[in-house]
Amino acid sequence: MHTAPANCLLALLLSTAAAQSWVVHDPRPIFPTITYDAHRGRGVMLLFSGTQLQVHEWDGQHWTPRWLGGPGPTSGSLTTRSLAFDPVRRHVVMLSSGQQLAWAWNGSSWASLPPPPFVPQWWSMAFDDAAQAFVLLENTAILGQNRTWRFDGIIWSQLAANAPLPDLLTTMAHDRARQRTVLRCGNTTLEWNGSAWTGGVTGVVPPSNLRAFFDPQRGKVILPSASGTQWQWSGSDWVPFAAPATLVGQTQARPVFFHDERRQEQVLCDDWTGTTQALTPNGWQLRQRLPGLGGGLQLSADHTHGHVIAVETPAILNPNPPPSTLRWTPAGWQDLGLPGLPVRLGAAQADRDLLGVIYRFGGTPGLGTTETDELWAFDGTAWTQSTAANAPAPRRGGALAVDPIRQRLVWFGGRQGTTYWNDTREFDGTQWIPKFPPNPPSPRNGHVMCGSAALGRVFLFGGATAPAGAQPNDFWAYDGTEWTQLPAPPIGAVTSIALTDFPAAGSVVLTVGAPSGQPNAWRWNGVVWSALPDAPFGANLAVTEPVLGSVFTALNGAVLTTTPSTATAFGTGCAGSAGAPALHAFGLPWLGNASFTVDLTTPLPGLTAGLVAFGSQPAAIALPGGCTVWLAPDATLLLLANGGFGAVSVPVPSLPSLLGAQLLAQGATLDATAALGFTLTGGVTITIGS
Prior knowledge:
The chain has 690 residues and is mainly β. It contains no helices and 62 strands. Strands 2, 53, 56, 59, 61 and 62 form a six-stranded antiparallel β-sheet that branches. A four-stranded mixed β-sheet has the order 1-60-55-54, with no helix packed on it. Strands 3-52-51-50 form a four-stranded antiparallel β-sheet, with no helix packed on it.
C-alpha cells in the first residue's frame, strides 16, 4: 500500500449542521475478536458497544470506527465469534456461535455468505493457502465428534471426522512456510495436511488461553504472550523463545494479539486497561491509550489549555497504586506521569477549572477508611495540597462544580460515615464561604453537578439519601442565592449518572445507565427536557470538551456535537473489464483527526497507478463510456494501488473555523481495458465536524 499525503484541505465550501449526534473517536475494545486484513494492511476488530455490534480497524497508530450498525450482522447471540481473512476474495469472514450465518467484511460494508450446514458452537478456522479455502474444525466435544469442513467462499464441504479433542478451547493458524494448518487444543497439537489430521501430545505445554497466528518474519506459527516468553511451532513441538517483557504502563489483564504484517509488528490490544501496544525491535511501544476500566475516573475541562484532564484511580487494586493524571487532546490520551496526588476514593473533582486551577476535595485513602478534608489543586503542571478556612467537614461522595458566571467553586452534600449532608459552600480560590440557601436538596451523596454559563446556574441531579435508601431522580438549580427544584426527565431507576455542560447547544446533558428501551441521554435547555440519541458505552463518565463546547465521554472518546463529521458517498463510478474502483473514507473527518484517510480500491491485480481529486465545487461532467466527473478539481494526488489498494492521508487540523466545511473527492485508476484507458469511482462528500 502506498499512502499519499494531503497537507492542506484545499478550497472548502462552508455549510451548516444542527442535528445533535454522537461521534466515536476512540473505540474501546470490550472482549474483542481481532484478525488482520493483509490486503489493506489493517487490523480488524469486532466488538460490542452495549448491545450493538461494531467494527473498528487498526492503521498502525489508532483504532478507527468503520461500522457502527446498519445492514449486516446483528448482536444476537454473538457471545463467541471468529474472524479470519480470505486473501483470495480480499475480505474478512465472520462466523458466530448459535447462528447458522456467515458474513464477509470488505473494509466498508458487510455481505452475507452461504451459511454453514451446521450451527456453530465451538470451532476454529484458518485459511489454507494450498486449498485456497478455509479449513474449520467443529469442536463438538459434547456430542463426541469433531467434524472438519472446507469453505471456499461459496461451497461448504465436510472433509473428515476426528476423535474428540480434550478441550473446547482451540486455536488454529496456517503455517505458510510448511503448508500445514496447525491446531492447538489443550496439550494436543495437530496438523492438517489437506486430507487428514496428524500429530498428538506435545512435550512443552504453553498456557491454554493463547491464540496462534503466523509470523512471516519468523516463518513460524506463534503463540504470543505478554509475559516475555512466547512459543513457536517447530513442526513437532512448541519451542519457547524470549520476547521483551516490559510493557508500557499498567499490567495487561485481557490481551488479544494479532500480527501486523505490513509494519512487521506484533500488536497487543487489552480491553481492561484500554491500551494497544506494538512489539518492535526496540521493545513494546504504546500506540493508543484509553482510561482503564478497573477503577475510578474523574474528569475536568481545562479551559485554560483546551484539554480534558482525568484522574484515574484504580480502586479495585490492593494496595492501590497512586492515581494517574491523564490529558486528552484530539491526538489522544497522554499520561502526564505526575507524582504526589494520593489515593482518595470518593473524592469530588470540579467539572472545569476555576481561574486556571482544577480542584479535588475529600475522599478516603482506601475502602472503608476515614474521610479526609484535603483540598488538592492542579495548575496544569503539578498537584499541590491547599489549605483554606471554613472547609467542609471530612467527606466523600460530595460534588463540586464551577459557576462560570460568578467564578465560584460550589460544593454540595456528601457523607461522613453514616451522616449525610446537604450543606452548600463556595470557594473563591482563597477561602470557603458557607452558604445558607432556603429549601436546599435533601442530604445525599453520589449526586452529580455541573455549571452552565449559557443557563447561568449550577445544576444538580440525583444521588442517594442513605446507603440503602432512596435514590431520587430529582433535578435542582443553584443561582448563588437559593436552590430551586426543576422538572426531572421522565426516567425510571438508573444505575449511573453524569451531568455535563453542553455550551455548543446552550444546555446541559444528563447521561444515565437506563433500563433497556429507555433513552440514556437527555438535554435540558432551561425550559424542558428532550431525549437525545442514545449515548455510547461509558457515557456515565462525561465532561465538556473545552474547545468546541461539546460533550465528551472519556472511555471511548465519543463526542455529542451539533456539527457531526460525515463522509457520504454520492454518484456512481464507471467500470473497466474487471469492474469499477471504489472510494471510501477511513474514519471520520473530525477536527484533529490526523489519521483520516481516503481509501481507493480496484479489482485490478498487481500494481496500478491511480489518483484522488479533491475540490470544493460539485459538477456532473459526462464522459464517453458512461463515466461522470462529479467535482471541479482543485488538486489531485497520485498514488500506487498495490494489489488493488491505495490510500491518501488527509489529516484534519484542530481549527474550529473549519467546522461545517465540506470537501468533495473522487478517484480514478489506469485501466487499459476501459474505453477511456481509465476508470472512475463515485464521489465522497466530506464534512468537517467535531
